[in-house]
Write the structure tokens for this entry.
Amino acid sequence: MIIAIGNDHAGTAYKNAIINQLKLAGYEVLNFGTDTEDSVDYPDHIHPVATAVSTQKASLGIII
């Protein structure tokens, strides 16, 4: 199963922890979130998650 994940700057550490657990469980992860704690506009990172799910490139989306 492929899981898409996205986050804004406030969720970077939490997203990274989730990605680590998902990979340990054998899931493929598409990371659309920011990888820094610098301020970002969340729609820039959330919209690609929704698109991946709606176009069936991912089975599930997680938004933080």
